[in-house]
Write a structure and sequence with these properties.
Layout (H helix, E strand, L loop, with lengths): L2 H10 L3 E8 L2 E8 L2 E2 L5 E6 L3 H8 L2 E7 L3 E12 L2 H7 L17 E15 L2 H17 L10 E5 L1
Antiparallel strand pairs: 1-2, 1-5, 3-4, 4-7, 5-6, 6-7, 7-8
Length: 159
C-alpha cells in the first residue's frame, strides 16, 4: 500500500479530529466529529454558522487537523471551506445532530465544513508493524542506538 492510501485509511479509522484554526490573532483547537472522509482524503464536518471556527475561517482558511488513538496518530495541514449546500447537508444528515441543531437538517445555522488536506504525517504503531517496531526499539535500547523507523509506521505524505 502506498503512503497516501495508508494515510487516508488511517484517517477513516478516526471518528473525531482536533480542528486547529488561526483567526483573530488566536490559534484554537476544537474537537470535531468526522462526518465523512472522501477518497481523495477530504474530510467533512458539521458546524454552526455563528461558531468561533467559522469566524476564524473568515480570517484564515488554513487549518490543521490532528487525530490520536492509542497506537495511531495523524497530523494534517490543509484549507477549509464552508458549504451551505442544503441538498448535501440533507444527504449527510444524521439524526444525532439534532442535539446541536434542534430544527433538524433544515436548521439555517447548520453548515458543512470541508477540509482539503495538502499534506500530512502518520505514526502507526498498531498491528504487526507496531510489534516489529517495539522489538527493534528494544534492541536499539540495549545496544545504545536509535531504532530505524519503517515507512509503514511513520511517513510524511503530500495529498
Amino acid at each position: 500500500m502506498d503512503k497516501k492510501s495508508k494515510l487516508i485509511d488511517l484517517i477513516r479509522d478516526f471518528d473525531t479530529a482536533m480542528l486547529i484554526t488561526n483567526g483573530n490573532g488566536r490559534i484554537v483547537a476544537r474537537p470535531m466529529a468526522i462526518v465523512r472522509v472522501d477518497d481523495d482524503g477530504s474530510i467533512w464536518f458539521i458546524t454552526d454558522r455563528d461558531s468561533g471556527k467559522v469566524e476564524s475561517l473568515n480570517d484564515d482558511r488554513r487549518v490543521g487537523l490532528t487525530m490520536q488513538g492509542s497506537r495511531q496518530f495523524v497530523s494534517l495541514s490543509g484549507v477549509a471551506e464552508i458549504h451551505d449546500d442544503r441538498v448535501k447537508i440533507a444527504a449527510m444528515w444524521k439524526e444525532m445532530w439534532k442535539i446541536w441543531f434542534p430544527k433538524g437538517k433544515d436548521d439555517p445555522s447548520l453548515l458543512l465544513l470541508k477540509v482539503d488536506p495538502s499534506d500530512g504525517e502518520y505514526w502507526d504503531n498498531s498491528g504487526m508493524e507496531g510489534v516489529k517496531y517495539l522489538i527493534e526499539a528494544g534492541k536499539a535500547y540495549f545496544m545504545g542506538e536509535r531504532p530505524e523507523v519503517n515507512e509503514d509506521i511513520n511517513a510524511s505524505v503530500k495529498l
